[in-house]
Automatic annotation (TrEMBL):
Annotated compartments: Cytoplasm
CDD domains: Fur_like
Protein's UniProt name: Ferric uptake regulation protein
Keyword line: Cytoplasm, DNA-binding, Iron, Metal-binding, Repressor, Transcription, Transcription regulation, Zinc
Native species: Thalassotalea insulae
Domain of life from the UniProt record: Bacteria
InterPro entries cross-referenced by the UniProt entry: FUR (IPR002481), Fur_C (IPR043135), WH-like_DNA-bd_sf (IPR036388), WH_DNA-bd_sf (IPR036390)
Family: Belongs to the Fur family.
Keyword DNA-binding among UniProt keywords: yes
Amino acid sequence: MTPEQLLEQAKKTCQKRGARFTLAREQVFTLLTKHDGAIGAYELLDQLKAVDPAAKPATIYRALDFLGQQGFVHKIESINAFVLCHHFGDCNHPVQLLICDQCGHVEEIQSNDFDSALRAMATNKGFTISHQIIEAHGACQACQ
């Protein structure tokens, strides 16, 4: 999908959910659509300042928090960065990310078998999973 198509899909999703897709949120979302890999909040802030010189760190963090709640982005905890999610309709889906440590490319994959196995192991330990993001680091095909 093009960045414009992704933006339209996000707007429609917010409209259906009754969520406000403010200009700042739209601008941050648009920046994320144009970035192939993971990107840090301060790098996003630098890019946002090109269109909104008054943007502050709080602007980015509030926008990223909203986008995460809507399921539009995933936070990659191990590198403190964010990546766009293309599964807007299912913001609670299990997330598995393949992260290239050399070029920074991030690939989102979904394995229902992996999710089922993890949930079964958690259940056996008396644990209930409410949210799942699995991060795997290595080298992508292009960097090998």
